[in-house]
Amino acid sequence: MTELLFTMLVPFTIAGVALYGAVRRVDVYSALVHGAGEGLETLWRIVPALVGLMTAVYMLRASGALELAAGYLAPLLERVGLPAELLPLMLVRPVSGSAALGVGAELMETYGPDSLLGRTAAVMLGSTETTFYTIAVYFGAVGITRTRYAVPAALCADLAGFLASAWAVRLCFGG
Amino acid sequence: MAMTIIWTGMVVLSILCGLVTGRGPEVAAAAIEGTRAAVELSLSIAGMMCLWTGIMEVMRQAGLAEKLSRLLAPVLRRLFPQVAKDRAIMDSISANVSANLLGLGNAATPLGLEAARKMGEKSKGTASDALCMLVVCNTASIQLIPTTVAAVRAGAGSQAPFDILPAVWLASAISVGVGIGACKLLARMWRD
């Protein structure tokens, strides 16, 4: 029952938004098409970055460097409940959004999007942000040079997000 | 520049490591395969990304973001006690947070920057407690429907791309909670 509810959440959201917009006399269809065009522009902008980064990620994986690093760090990470395979994702996540998307997509392809590992990668992507980029944009725009405790506090939130992702996926999907 | 170092490092490291482990040919093949995978990924997520940015635009035009931001105002006043009396700043913050919740990234950033700029006028060059809180809230993800990730899952052949929603909400809430907690704690302890 709850599973059906979550499957239907998406179509219900779409229908609900459309109805709400129509009642508020919004030109729902042209807003939808206009917004979809913006989505395409966003995608268009990240394709070049994806090509560059996924090439590097594929090379790194083929070279065996990831397995080597994961092998060394596995005992440490596994102690806190984080699969070592997700280490590359956690390292790039705060730095680059498109790199993290590329690494995450690669993990989901390799281990399957509905596997425990694939789901954890997805939840990590969905529950964290590109921390350093955001900090650079905000402090750059305002001209802040003394950032005080903003960086450590933001990294605490990221770390908590990673640990919580692994825990939440185990809680929701077992294993 | 950070990305230049990371990217170059990744490429050089994979060639060195590939040569040492005797996987040179695999690395060469991967350099070609990676480009194809990137374009395939872009194509496989394109449809869902477009649909959802379309839905977000309908939400924005229907005034859902403003409604949400009125709902959030009382909570945010407690998070930002230093600027709670400043109507203009509080309005920008509420609009920023509600746009983030709805996943309107393009709308959220200018709103957040507006609030940040007004906060920055009061403490030139130094991040005030309120500004640290605003930045940390924006570095944590609070998006209710993580559409890009769902699109990637769908592209990889997931049976139910959105079944991760409860786990995402749980993890986001913990992450934001820890970020806010760290800000409040460090605001008291920080000496500079």
Give the helices and strands, then pairings:
The complex is a heterodimer of chains A (175) and B (192).
Chain A: H1 2-23, H2 28-63, H3 65-79, H4 87-92, H5 97-111, H6 116-127, H7 131-142, H8 150-173
Helix pairs in contact in A: 2-5, 5-6, 6-8
Chain B: H1 2-20, H2 24-61, H3 64-79, H4 87-101, H5 105-122, H6 129-139, H7 147-155, H8 165-189
Helix pairs in contact in B: 1-2, 2-7, 3-4, 4-5, 5-6, 6-8
Strand content of chain B: under 5%
Strand content of chain A: under 5%
> Stretches of chain A where pLDDT falls below 50 for ≥5 residues?
none
Beta strands of chain B, count:
0
Describe the structure.
The complex is a heterodimer of chains A (175) and B (192). Chain A is mainly α and 175 residues long. Chain A contains 8 helices and no strands. Chain A has helices spanning 2-23, 28-63, 65-79, 87-92, 97-111, 116-127, 131-142, 150-173. With 192 residues, chain B is mainly alpha-helical. Chain B is 79% helix and 0% strand. Chain B has helices at residues 2-20, 24-61, 64-79, 87-101, 105-122, 129-139, 147-155, 165-189. The longest helix of chain B is centred in the N-terminal third of the chain and has 38 residues, at 24-61. The two termini of chain B are 29 Å apart. The chains are: A mainly alpha (175), B mainly alpha (192). Chains A and B meet through helix 1, helix 2, helix 5, helix 6 and helix 7 of A and helix 1, helix 2, helix 5, helix 6 and helix 7 of B.
